[in-house]
Amino acid sequence: MRSTQSIEILCLVLAALVLVWSGTLVAQPWAVAPLLAFAAAIATFRARRFFPGRTRTRLLIESWSMVAFITAVLWFTNKSSSPLFNLYLLPIILSALTLGRLVTLLQVGVIALCHLGLASASPQIDVLSLAYASQVVGQIAPFLLVAFLTTTLSADITEARERIENLAQTDSLTGLYNPRTFNQIWQREHASCEGDRGTYALLMVDIDRLKDINETFGHEAGNSAITLVAQCLQRSIRASDTAGRFGGDEFAVLLPGATPEIAESVVKRVRHNVYKTTLDLRSRMIRCTVSVGVVCYPKDGRDVRELMSAVEHKVYRDKELRRAPGAETSA
Does residue 279 contact residue 224 with C-beta atoms inside 8 Å? Predict the structure, then answer.
């Protein structure tokens, strides 16, 4: 992460400047050791790319390494009274933004123990005195406040980002995937089946007479019918299946690994669940029905466009049959 690298470099630069300007490097040449060690660790960690794909592990290592580095620098710059003590805010902010509240609070606790250890090594400080207690509270309390506020802000940002991503992928009325996201999932499944000779089924579902419901009862009633069918679809499919709304009164369902027999059983389940669920519209109980088309890969086509054309034709054919006089609407 670029932000992590920036924090590490900032921490290193600030520590180096204070060590040089204060004359510590001249009086205590060993003070250069933590600078060189931390710089080498940063360079090696970035160059070798340790723990690929395990971002949290990398962040844990880098955050705690910064705590160790700052503690070492404080040892050479007046220990617990060092002007660099506030550098601890950098790993705290990093942890709060990326690792969560528990790790951040644990880090603040470790920093408090480091403060106690550094103060114990200073002959002029009595760690059992009231003066030292007030010093600790004055220095550690702001860290706790920053940790709490930053973790809260990070949680709010994460929640907002997830909500935005969810809105970008789903239909606002039904919560099903929108056409763009559904097509992306379908394309991935199709490519996977082409590679390993797998199978899948695609259902296209169309609500019957939705226009009549809209004209008779209003668009809110039509939206209720759309929502009802969406809920019935979700109840009728497996967790591994994918349902999406294609706009208006059309839905699509992807059934990975489904055979024609499994697909037909899903079609029957969808029809049954929709028909047995009624809408209460102005004290009238309305039953919805759906027309369904189903195609299977590779039986009904090997190309996505060919399959889409075939399933649309089957939906249209099913709708025509269901409009015929005496046609059964519940199955």
Answer: yes
